[in-house]
Specification:
The complex is a heterodimer of chains A (230) and B (86).
Chain A: E1 2-7, H1 14-24, E2 28-33, E3 44-47, H2 67-77, E4 82-85, H3 87-94, E5 101-103, E6 111-119, E7 135-142, E8 146-148, H4 151-159, E9 163-168, E10 187-191, E11 197-200, H5 218-229
Parallel strand pairs in A: 1-2, 1-3, 3-4, 4-11
Antiparallel strand pairs in A: 5-8, 6-7, 6-9, 9-10, 10-11
Chain B: E1 2-12, H1 19-30, E2 43-51, H2 54-69, E3 75-85
Classes of the chains: A alpha/beta (230), B alpha+beta (86).
């Protein structure tokens, strides 16, 4: 399977994502420059973490006007998988690929730390290798990760099984201390209505090998392989 | 066409947690400004546009707010001022 990793000016997790695909997964990956107009027939698009365009105006607000984003949106409309991590999640929200917005952490601090997230729906193309309710460890590294949406949108996400990950404690329980950024309903990751776009603040590509402290994120990549190859 | 300078205020929507605004309100209380009831921190954007009238200049910047300058999910905006430029 061929993965395309988008590089915006200011992306800084593109190599991590590339390495996970090529070295850990043993699949093919290409970098796609933000000014490109061609997705090079990739099967999966990864919008990586970083600070695209310096996060000017709002995180992700300028990146969505990159030429390549037209192609990413078309790919998503065709049902192509898009994995949007951290800044990529912010870009996907600004581009309208996912609902809601990611605002300044409630603590006002940039947070770089491991967190626990619970798999809330193991029946998506990004989570089918996990068990329902499984608790994963992945790092976060963001200043603006507080998921925010209106109540109707939140209810719709819940009712349609589109909340894929929630911040929890090590035992899988919900509490305020385990919600690092103050996200509404402790939401760490969601999928689009069609289920082919996943946005999440934790970094699965930084938790794909035991050497890195956790391989909890690897299942997201393996799930895509299982689904898209099938 | 005339030139206009349009100022727009963009602030977090009421009801959306604004931790910066809350921190500032708390600091003001600490300083003794006990009458402060709420503070919200947003952006002030100044745009120079060519337009036929000041109303048209305001309308143009409203469209910019809808499409880029404000996030419709979380922010409100208001045109604070439209002034003619020489």
């Amino acid at each position: 399977m061929k993965f395309g990793v988008i590089t915006f000016p200011g992306s800084n997790c593109d190599y991590d994502a590339f390495r996970t695909v090529v070295d850990v997964l043993g699949e093919q990956a290409v970098y796609l420059w933000h000014k490109d107009h061609d997705l090079q027939n990739v099967d999966v698009v990864i919008l990586p973490g970083g600070f695209a365009y310096g996060d000017y105006l709002r995180a992700g607000a300028i990146a969505r006007f990159s030429p390549i984003m037209q192609e990413v949106a078309a790919h998503a409309r065709r049902g192509g998988p898009v994995l949007a991590v951290c800044n990529g999640f912010q870009v996907a929200c600004e581009a309208g690929l996912l609902p809601g917005a990611l605002l300044r952490n409630a603590s006002l601090s940039f947070l770089g730390q491991p967190v626990h997230v619970r798999v809330e729906n193991a029946d998506t193309m990004f989570t089918n290798r996990y068990a329902q309710g499984q608790v994963l460890t992945m790092p976060i590294a963001h200043g603006e990760g507080r998921f925010t949406a209106d109540e109707d949108t939140l209810d719709r996400l819940e009712n349609e099984g589109r909340v894929t990950f929630r911040y929890v404690n090590a035992h899988g329980g919900l509490d305020d201390e385990s919600n690092p950024n103050g996200s509404m309903r402790a939401i760490a990751g969601i999928v689009s209505a069609e289920g082919n776009v996943l946005g999440l603040m934790p970094h699965p590509e930084r938790a794909a090998e035991a050497l890195l402290g956790s391989s909890g994120g690897l299942g997201i990549f393996q799930s895509m392989l299982a689904r898209v190859s099938a | 066409m005339s030139r206009y300078r349009v100022s727009v205020h963009i602030v977090p929507r009421k009801g959306i947690l604004d931790p910066q605004g809350k921190a500032v309100a708390d600091a003001l209380h600490t300083l003794g400004f006990r009458d402060v009831q709420d503070a919200r921190i947003g952006r002030h954007v100044v745009i120079d546009v060519a337009a036929t009238t000041s109303d048209a200049a305001g309308d143009s910047v409203r469209k910019m707010c809808d499409r880029l300058l404000a996030n419709p999910v979380t922010e409100d905006y208001e045109i604070a001022r439209v002034e003619g430029l020489p």
